[in-house]
Amino acid sequence: MRYLCLLGCMVFAQPYKDLEEHAGAVYAFAFSEDSRYLVSASSDRTVRLWSIPHGMALARFGGALASVNSLVLLPDTQGTLWGAASDGKLYQWSLREHRERPSTFALKPQRVEPLAKKVRRTGPPEPWEAIGHHPTQPLLYLVGRSGLIVAWDTQEGWLLTYQDTARLAYSLLVPPHGKALYVGSGSGSILVLDPKELSLRRILRGHTKGVRGLALSPDQRILASAGLDGKIMLWSLPEGLRLQTLEKHTDGVRAVAFSPDGRFLASAGKDGLLCLWALPTGRLEKVLTLGVPLWTVAFSPNGQYLVVGGEGGLLRLWRIDQLGIRPIQIIAETDSLYAPPTDLQDNIPQCRSSQINRYAFIVGNEDYRSYQPTFTPTMNVPYAGRDAYAFKVYAEQVLGIPPRNIVFLQNATAAQLRRELEKLRILLEVARGRAEVFFYYAGHGVPHPQTQEGYILPVDVAPTALQEALRLTDLAKQLSETGAARVWMILDACFSGGAREESPLAARGIRLRPKPVLLTGPVILIAATSADEEALPYHQAQHGLFTYFLLRALKTHGCAPVSVEALLEEVANETVRYSLLLHNKPQRPTWMISPALSEEILRQPW
Q1: DSSP β-ladder status, 315-319 and 16-18
Q2: How far apart are the first and last CA of the chain?
Q3: Which of 6, 111, 481, 587 has a 20 to 30 A CA-CA distance from 182?
């Protein structure tokens, strides 16, 4: 008994444990649901079974005639294991066979399917790069190196195919809900396919080189992509908006994995770096240099272990607490402030029928760095795209604005803004004085260094070239002269030169107290900040603080006869409270109306 205890205590006497059996690069692995077993696949044509946490080799699954590039372990009683190989074949083994008949000999596959020949009867076999399974149906999905995507019914044998036009693909992900299929293309795009028909639904664009790895957060709301351009991108689902770009790797990123509690993202790259990112802030928590190119990474389902595979047979296992980060824990009541809040996208009320005279102009400017090389990643505006999309949904459902009356822009350039504003002006003239306009903007606001007047900053305009930007006073005047009966300007931005990630954008690198906007005509201005305050993020909700509490108030009171003033007071109080508790900084939203309007307007409901 003492010996067993000593052995258990010595398993992680060093910070990690190397599992040393593979002779070639380790391309893939899969954990059992109970985290007791790990299966690994290698270019040495073997698949091996390990006990966790001891890292003891238990069995070798043989029979593969080529490199096994991807694995999927089905959650059935048999422990069915499928491997996709470079020879175009699928190999099926069973973990139950090992448990019933432990052996030192290689276990033969129970089934070998030359699927590539069934798909293409002539030419060389399709090397399979990735494999996945449908959560409720006997379907396997495969991605071939040439960009061929296949759905195969393992019981009835029928096939569906889709060809990526890039003729190159690397990765595949099937969410637990089984309602979509995500494919990492060699073009740098992410293809969103219908899992039943393999028809293309959407394309997510951002990477400049192929997408080598995909991962889904535990709450199924964030998709992480690993690009060969050295970047990791986080996307909101189902809308497909890019939330963040994480940069540290100096070469292609080949794999990403979320921890089961959603607090961390691991990334493995060709540069030999294993990076751990804290979520939702995207802060780089830890970097490990392993010295060889890495191919794959995963957390155990119980969140206690992290494993990475790479060249030269590298297969390394860590216990999470020995990496200096905390494992899964139950969030105490005192930590409830930092827990992810109720999502705004669920159960949005449908408050009123379509209001044909209501219009919306919605802009989310988040990605400035792609348009301006001098910008650093911290000079982007976290969640601005997500803010704008969420406001669009609420505009339709709560405010009753018809979709055809909504202009929605993401990462808008100066030319796009001016072109669409001119189009809006023409539409409002047709409405002949009956229109009500909601102008919403999330992004950077910048003060003029001499006049201190606030400007909206298009993504392609530098803070030092404000003659190309939109001056708030001019914008308010332009909207008021359209003949609209009422204009609501809602701005989740600060105009002092600060940014959500604390990167000053003012021309002289300092924050200024902006001048008040001169309002004329039927304009009401609602701003996220007062004076020289910053417009802060609410990382746990993946929104700007102001926008989150504005939408939450609309969700709670939008269908009730609550005055705009009462609604905004609630938004302001919550924004102030959370800005102090989360950031130790004040942020109080403000609002003002044009002298041409009566204060009575704010005492009416939206």
Answers
A1: antiparallel
A2: 72
A3: 111
Which amino acid is located at 505 in the chain?
L
Tokens found for residue 180: 């979509």
**For residue 49, which of 35, 41, 39, 63 has the smallest C-alpha distance?**
39
Tokens of 318: 């860590």
Q: And the tokens for 248?
A: 């540290």
Q: Give CA–CA dist 48/542, Å, rounded.
A: 40
Residues 81/61, Cβ–Cβ less than 8 Å? yes
Angle separating helix axes 545-557 and 564-583, nearest 10 degrees? 140
8 Å CB contact between 493 and 443: yes
φ, ψ (nearest 5 deg) of residue 331: -70, 125
Chain centroid offset of residue 243 CA? 5
DSSP H stretches of helix in 101-147: 115-119
What are the residue ranges in the chain where pLDDT is below 70? 1-14, 103-104, 325-342, 377-378, 497-498, 501-513
Cα–Cα distance measured from residue 160 to residue 151, given in angstroms and rounded to the nearest whole number: 5
**Which stretches of 496-563 are DSSP H helices?**
545-557
CB atoms within 10 A of CB 347: 8
Q: Which residues have a Cβ under 8 Å from the Cβ of 419 and sit 6 or more positions away? A: none
Instruction: Give me the residue label for tokens 């030192």.
Output: 104
Strand order of the β-sheet with 90-94 is 68-73, 80-85, 90-94, 111-113
pLDDT of residue 105: 72
Cis? peptide before 280, omega within 30° of 0: yes
∠ CA 331-552-458, rounded to 5°: 105
SS3 state at 222:
strand
Q: Which amino acid is at 325?
A: I
Retrieve residue 481's tokens.
């002269």
Q: How many C-beta neighbours within 10 Å does residue 330 have?
A: 6
Contacts of 373-377 spanning 24+ positions with Cβ under 8 A: 374/462, 376/503, 377/245, 377/247
| The pLDDT of residue 339 | 52
pLDDT 10s digits, 386-442 = 899 999 999 999 999 999 999 999 999 999 999 999 999 888 888 878 899 999 999
Q: What is the largest CA-CA distance in the chain?
A: 88
Nearest-angstrom CA–CA distance, 407 and 391: 12
Instruction: Identify the sign of the CA torsion 563, 565, 571, 573.
Output: negative
pTM: 0.66
pLDDT of residue 44: 94
Count of CB atoms within 10 A of residue 373's CB? 6
Other beta carbons within 10 angstroms of residue 56's beta carbon come to 11
pLDDT, residue 327, reads 42
Separation between Cα atoms, residue 384 and residue 542, nearest integer Å: 9
What is the per-residue pLDDT for 474?
A: 94
Beta bridge partner(s), residue 316: 18, 308
Task: Find all residues with CB under 8 Å of 467, minimum gap 6, and list them.
Answer: none
The dihedral built from the CA positions of residue 498, 503, 505 and 507, taken in this order, carries a sign that is: positive
Beta pairing, strands 406-410 & 358-364: parallel
CA-to-CA distance for 410 and 390, rounded, in angstroms? 12
Tokens of 510: 């300092």
